[in-house]
């Protein structure tokens, strides 16, 4: 059972990290690595949650801010990178009202996530998440407050962390709105996320699995930068 769960995690992460988005790889629909069990998932409440939270830019249908200087702006949170097609990077972000430091909401009240790929292996353009990306890497919101959002992602169900949640917190510091995404480590420390990097395994140049994940960030208490490895 442990080996089977590990295999599920590897296949999910390979798809989640957009391994086949470069121009020399199969496009969506012809991807031989797509995990059919995930693709055929029913439209669950989790998937509905993901679809409601993701946005391409400023949230459509959001009521106008009372103060025109407090219009929502995108704030970068953290990145997903890997050693295959390394210039294709997933940039996770969220829209925030900078003057009042409130997390922006979409027209239905969900947090206005603003996440996209930077296709550095091609022409550097932005590319929105595909339906497969959204199923695996889209946010499933667990808590939605004015200045805090807690979410999880399907891709990290088997990651060896006790708390598989990411918390986004927006707060005023010295008159400036500061927004951070952080995780709680198994030893109780909280870590602001900067980057998650995947080291892959290969067979004749073709990626076949994930050897490990390297997570980079700062200790929320001391501000000290550090990184650690996640592996089964």
Which descriptors apply to this entry?
disordered N terminus, 232 residues, twelve-stranded mixed beta sheet, 15% helix
The count of domains is 1
Specify Rg, calculated over alpha carbons: 18 Å
- What distance lies between the first and last C-alpha atoms, to the nearest angstrom? 13 Å
Helix content range:
10-25%
Tell me, what's the shape? globular
% residues in beta strands:
35-45%
As residue ranges, the low-confidence spans are: 1-11, 19-45, 56-65
Class by SSE composition: alpha+beta
User: How would you spell out the order of helices and strands?
Assistant: HHHEEEEEEEHEEEEEEE
DSSP, total strands? 14
Task: Please outline the major beta sheet.
Answer: 12 strands, mixed
Question: What do the pLDDT scores average to?
Answer: 79
Count of runs of 4 or more consecutive helical residues: 4
Task: Reconstruct the topology from this structure.
Layout: H1 2-16, H2 36-39, H3 45-53, E1 54-55, E2 73-82, E3 88-97, E4 102-103, E5 113-114, E6 116-119, E7 126-128, H4 131-137, E8 140-144, E9 148-152, E10 166-173, E11 176-184, E12 190-203, E13 206-219, E14 225-230
Parallel strand pairs: 1-5, 2-12
Antiparallel strand pairs: 2-3, 3-4, 3-6, 6-7, 8-9, 9-10, 10-11, 11-12, 12-13, 13-14
Helix pairs in contact: 1-4
């Amino acid at each position: 059972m442990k080996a089977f769960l590990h295999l599920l995690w590897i296949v999910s992460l390979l798809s989640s990290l957009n391994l086949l988005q470069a121009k020399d790889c199969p496009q969506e629909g012809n991807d031989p690595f797509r995990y059919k069990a995930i693709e055929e998932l029913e439209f669950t409440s989790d998937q509905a949650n993901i679809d409601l939270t993701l946005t391409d830019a400023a949230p459509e249908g959001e009521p106008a801010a009372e103060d025109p200087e407090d219009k929502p702006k995108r704030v970068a949170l953290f990145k997903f990178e890997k050693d295959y097609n390394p210039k294709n990077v997933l940039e996770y972000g969220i829209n925030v009202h900078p003057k009042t430091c409130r997390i922006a909401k979409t027209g239905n009240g969900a947090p206005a996530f603003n996440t996209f790929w930077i296709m550095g292996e091609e022409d550097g353009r932005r590319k929105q998440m595909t339906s497969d990306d959204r199923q695996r890497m889209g946010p499933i919101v667990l808590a939605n407050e004015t200045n805090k959002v807690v979410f999880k992602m399907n891709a990290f169900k088997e990651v060896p962390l006790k708390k598989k949640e990411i918390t986004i917190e927006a707060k005023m510091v010295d008159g400036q709105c500061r927004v951070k995404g952080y995780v709680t480590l198994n030893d109780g420390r909280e870590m602001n996320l900067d980057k998650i990097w995947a080291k892959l395994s290969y067979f004749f140049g073709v990626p076949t699995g994930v050897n490990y994940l390297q997570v980079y960030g700062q200790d929320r208490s001391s501000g000290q930068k550090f990184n650690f490895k996640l592996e089964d």
